[in-house]
Specification:
Strand content: 5-15%
Bound molecules: pyridoxal-5'-phosphate
Order of helices and strands: HEEEHHHEHEHEHEHEEEHHEEHEEEHH
Number of helices: 13
Radius of gyration: 22 Å
Structural class: alpha/beta
Length: 427
């Protein structure tokens, strides 16, 4: 496989034209859409309209006239189509961390109610040690507040770790470091047998692969707007609850826009029906306008086969990257940690063995015009270089050029330069 072969794959790629939806700097190879998706051309225009016309001229009238007030629901319905949910089951709100707090609370309340409000023996929230830190921090706080125990297991032993004490299994579908994907259907089935509820974080899978929340029997899910959904920096997140839980959905942040009749301005809280009660306060309209454009870039793949077609391309891109890395960089100590099997998301991470600063290697690769990122681990030996492949806009030729840059940096040790060795705040 050489550069021309990769260019030929792009020429034959039925999804190639979807890249034109984005503004991407020429000459830059962007492989970090798993951390911040690229800018949709439509977002810049929509933001201009939302500010100058809707805000500038429409002013307060735009809450009704421009449909601002329903944006969290309309956007939620669109996102539902990407994750195997149905209309009316997803709302867009707050951040992933906050939504996780809300649904984990709701799930624990359901289990407490099941036990008649008594301290029950079903008192464990099960998660994995390698989960994204914010998910663990949120769970730590809630467990302390509600008297549950947060129990962490290894990624491979989730199913074996469930028992009659498990109240909730809280997992991230695709691991942010390794890129390994859990088998959602199997874990949900096992949880149901054990009497536990499941809460899924789709941050690294929504928009990257088909997800079947209903088909796979999930209970709750949250996800991120600024990664593969291309919603822009700090985009709002989304939250899904299975309709069987809607009637008894207790959320801890009982704000006015989750009230059944917010404009009655009643003194007493009365939850709205369904997931609307998961909304707390006023939606960040400008951010949601941008996220709406980001989600539309994924819906634009529908005529080409939608998420299944994007998934096929994603697997082909990551497989090619791993093959080329092994062929050209194994000699420099590159050790891929992402599974070669299809139990992976859309990013690939690797360690580099030997006496070198992996953070500096990534900085030197970035200086060569290929953007990935670095994810520290518990020790320097755990730090990983991570490259994300967004099937909407990444090309097979990008894969070739990225491996070429990595090989060049490792061969010439060009990472060993003071410019690359000092850590920035965001890695
Ligand atoms: C990116 C990410 C988040 C981000 O949470 P914020 O509240 O948006 O900062 C949470 N969980 C996982 C697993 C992530 O990958």
């Amino acid at each position: 496989m050489n550069r021309n072969d990769c260019a030929a794959l792009d020429a034959a790629d039925p999804l190639a034209s979807l890249r034109e939806q984005f503004t991407l700097p020429a000459e830059l190879i962007y492989l970090d859409g798993n951390s911040l998706g690229a800018l949709p051309k439509a977002a810049a225009l929509a933001l201009q309209c939302a500010t100058l016309q809707q805000w500038g001229d429409g002013l307060i009238r735009s809450w009704n006239d421009a449909g601002w007030i329903d944006l969290p629901n309309r956007l939620g319905d669109k996102i539902a189509t990407l994750i195997g949910g149905k209309a009316g089951e997803v709302v867009c709100a707050d951040s992933t961390s906050i939504n996780l707090y809300k649904v984990l609370f709701a799930a624990l309340q359901i289990q407490l109610a099941h036990a008649g409000g008594q301290t029950s023996t079903r008192n464990v929230v099960l998660s994995e040690r390698e989960n994204f830190p914010t998910d663990l921090y949120i769970a730590q706080s809630l467990c302390t507040q509600l008297g549950f125990e947060l129990r962490l297991c290894e990624s491979e032993s989730v199913k074996q770790s469930m028992d009659s004490s498990t109240a909730v299994v809280m997992l991230t579908h695709v691991n942010y470091r390794s890129g390994a994907a859990h088998d959602m259907a199997q874990i949900n089935a096992q949880a149901a047998r054990a009497g536990a509820l499941t809460v899924w974080d789709l941050a690294h899978s929504a928009g990257a692969m088909p997800i079947g929340l209903h088909a796979d029997g999930a209970d709750f899910a949250v996800g991120c707007g600024y990664k593969y959904l291309n919603g822009g920096p700090g985009a709002p997140a989304f939250v899904w609850a299975h309709p069987k839980h809607h009637a008894r959905l207790a959320q801890p942040l009982t704000g006015w826009l989750g009230h059944a009749q917010p404009f009655d301005f009643a003194a007493q809280y009365q939850p709205a029906a369904g997931v609307q009660r998961l909304v707390c306060g006023t939606p960040p309209v400008l951010s949601m306008v941008a996220l709406d454009c980001g989600v539309d870039t994924l819906l634009a793949a529908q005529p080409f086969g939608g998420m299944p077609a994007l998934r096929q391309k994603s697997l082909a891109l990551t497989q090619l990257f791993m093959q080329l890395l092994r062929a050209r960089c194994a000699q420099y100590g590159v050790r891929i940690v992402t599974p070669m099997t299809e139990h992976r998301g859309s990013h690939v991470s690797f360690a580099i063995d030997g006496e070198l600063d992996r953070y500096a290697v990534m900085q030197a690769v970035i200086a060569r015009g290929v953007i990935g990122d670095f994810r520290a681990g518990g020790t320097p030996a755990d730090g990983l270089l991570r490259f994300g492949f967004a099937p909407l806009y990444n090309r097979f030729e990008d894969v070739w050029l990225a491996v070429d840059a990595i090989a060049d940096v490792l061969q010439n040790a060009s990472w060993n330069d003071a410019r690359y060795l000092s850590r920035a705040t965001v890695t």
